[in-house]
Amino acid sequence: MTSPVALRARDLAVWRGERCLFEGLDFDLAERQLAVVIGPNGAGKTTLLRVLAGLSLPSAGTLTWHGAPVGSLPLEQRGAIAYRGHLDGLKKDLTVLENLRFHATIWGGSAAVEPLLQELKLVEVANSRVRHLSAGQQRRTALATLKLSNAKLWILDEPTTNLDAEGRARILDWIRQHRAAGGAAVVATHQPDEFSEPGTLLMEL
Amino acid sequence: MNAFSMILARDLRIAFRRFGEVSTPLLFFVIVVSLFPLALSPNADVLREVGTGVLWVSALLSSLLALEGLFRGDADDGSLEQLMLSPVPLGITVLAKVAAHWLIAVLPLIALVPVLALSYALPLQALPTMIAALLLATPTLSVLIAIGAALTVSLRRGGSLVGLLILPMTAPLLIFGSRATDFGVHGEPTAGPLYLLAALAVSAVALGPVAIAAAIRVGVE
Question: Which of B16, B19, B22, B82 to mutate to test binding with chain A, by most A CBs within 10 Å of its CB?
Fold first, then answer.
């Protein structure tokens, strides 16, 4: 079974000043496929992920999502790419519930907020401001917002940081479910063994 | 539209929870305006002469102070990236944010103007014109400052740079706004400059979001 190509990169290069982070990067990411990006600190993993999400422009090369350039997706494809980086994307002065409701409205996802709180054991802190949560709870809240979108491509930058064993297992499970539902994912990590399985696209920077 | 009101409500809610930060530009406005009589002269004739200009320039600087960090909070916690990737067009998002900050920071400032105008012995008859001119000029001003705020979003100390970028462009607002107020003080017809300010406001609100969105994409690299 071969799935159609979702994300296609051709001759991608990123320069930061005089320094070349990577160049000549070619890959095809199919629907239901997982790509794992590995490399030492400072190799450009985060930069690559931001380029894939369309937040930064590559210095050279083309990057298309179902044939459309990632930087200017057509209206019906907007919101197809979700990115979770080192920053949580949560407002610290709003409560967990307010943050999640906001994301649900903006991203127009179909998942309900309450079951998600239970799944992530955030019910007790649902009405606390994010500022007062532990790092792990903040991380879980940030990952919960992933489920509130209808994004087809998840781009995750070291998603297991600050998570306990249970949280790590959950995020791996979510990625598996997401791919089973036809989604694709790109994950940057220092523990590729956690994510790798047959068919995984491994990118080393 | 739902997204617009959601973003507007979110920013208002955050502002009410950090009231201290929001009220700083207002206090700045009151203090700057009160300093001029100390430096110039408490003579009512002198104050009436300079009052219009003092109030307009102070309002301009206070708005700059209030809005230069419009996008920095969202950039620092990653919300801006999320808003950029979300299905909501970035133009709608930035318009909602500018509207929220206009309501929080600029509208209370305009509400203070009558009191401060009286302390400058400006005639009561000039007040409606002055308020109208401020209400028409500040949306344009907010959009201009938002463009500067978007361009400097990734700079740690972007505030003074926004001033350098934007203040020269606010000259027309200052000229027409204080001219309208001056006409009001002397009992002359004020429709001309007010219409011009209104035209500027309409174009700023219509075209501004596109410019701000483009500036954010450049600023966030």
Answer: B82
